[in-house]
Design brief:
Order of helices and strands: HEHEHEEHHHHHHHHHHHH
Shape: globular
Number of domains: 2
Number of strands: 4
Radius of gyration: 22 Å
Largest sheet: 4 strands, parallel
Distance between the termini: 57 Å
Helix content: 40-55%
Strand order of the largest sheet: 2-1-3-4
Length: 305
């Protein structure tokens, strides 16, 4: 029900809580983001608001910025923002390093942990290619079509898309771009969409040599991975490697130490330094704060004896 509430509602909720809560308010797009960041951030220092959408998260920040409300930060998916010339920058809106949070985790060692659990060792060795690069190679056309849809207000529907209709389960590539476009066209109920024109737009974007980590959507990569784990990279039944299960396992495999190597981590540190006393992170990862508390306790006992 909350997904239907507007930005003003969430902004008012945060305003009312500010007088009684001294910690940081963090706004994230969705429940998945909240679960991931909840495992990384010091929840004793911050409180999460799920906005149910990137634009709404940014709108909440803009409303609260007008009120000069301190200690509020939004963390949203980059999507295509870094590739758009008209990208709006706000000091208290931070972006994921890659296209989205899932893509960021796929780039991390969490993906290797997932593949050790889910992949067939001999099949992966036989494949010879880097699996991440192969996922990007396949996922880029889906990413480009998503971008074209946004740029041209096509309102194409990707949710609930059957990837097995256009991803070859032997090569794990999109062999027929027109077939892929037509699948999305039919799924979106857009009978007037010109497949040839869209194909030309995709090819034009491909020629720009974009960073594919900024182009590819993490959910698309996970859906391609689920097909690969059934035959090429594993021997699972399709019901045992559903995308939602793989997304959950990837989230659980993502460790605090992996996050400390990201640019987003550094940006949060910078935000903390400029917004004292508000905190989000554990001191020096996940152990220093505990160590400091123990040290203070020992010193206090020593002074009392």
């Amino acid at each position: 029900m909350q997904e239907y509430l507007n930005a003003n509602f969430f902004a008012n909720q945060i305003r009312m809580r500010r007088s009684s809560y001294e910690g940081t308010f963090i706004i994230v797009e969705g429940r998945y983001d909240r679960l991931v960041y909840g495992n990384i951030f010091n929840e004793e220092k911050c409180d999460f608001t799920v906005s149910y959408g990137k634009e709404k998260a940014i709108d909440i920040i803009k409303i609260l910025n007008k009120d000069n409300l301190d200690g509020v930060l939004a963390i949203v998916d980059a999507d295509f923002s870094r590739l758009e010339e008209n990208h709006e920058s706000l000091l208290n809106v931070l972006l994921t390093d890659e296209h989205d949070l899932e893509t960021m985790m796929i780039k991390s060692p969490a993906f290797d942990k997932l593949m050790k659990e889910r992949g067939g060792e001999q099949k992966i060795q036989k494949f010879t290619q880097d699996i991440r690069n192969h996922l990007l190679k396949t996922g880029k056309n889906i990413g480009y079509l998503r971008w074209i849809s946004l740029q041209n207000n096509l309102a194409l529907k990707f949710e609930g898309l059957n990837y097995s209709k256009f991803v070859n389960n032997e090569t794990l590539l999109i062999d027929d771009i027109i077939k892929f476009i037509k699948t999305v066209k039919d799924h979106s109920q857009k009978p007037n969409l010109d497949e040839i024109n869209i194909k030309q737009k995709i090819e034009k974007l491909e020629n720009n040599n974009h960073d594919l980590w900024q182009i590819c959507c993490g959910h698309d990569l996970i859906c391609i991975l689920s097909i690969g784990l059934c035959k090429k990279w594993g021997s699972w039944d399709t019901n045992k490697v559903k995308p939602e299960d793989l997304e959950r396992e990837l989230r659980l495999a993502y460790e605090k130490d992996f996050f400390t190597t990201t640019e987003l981590y550094q940006l949060i540190q910078h935000w903390e330094n400029n917004n004292s006393p508000y905190k989000i992170l554990y001191l020096d990862g996940n152990k220093t704060e505990i160590y400091q508390a123990v040290t203070n306790h020992v010193q206090q006992n020593s002074s009392n004896s």
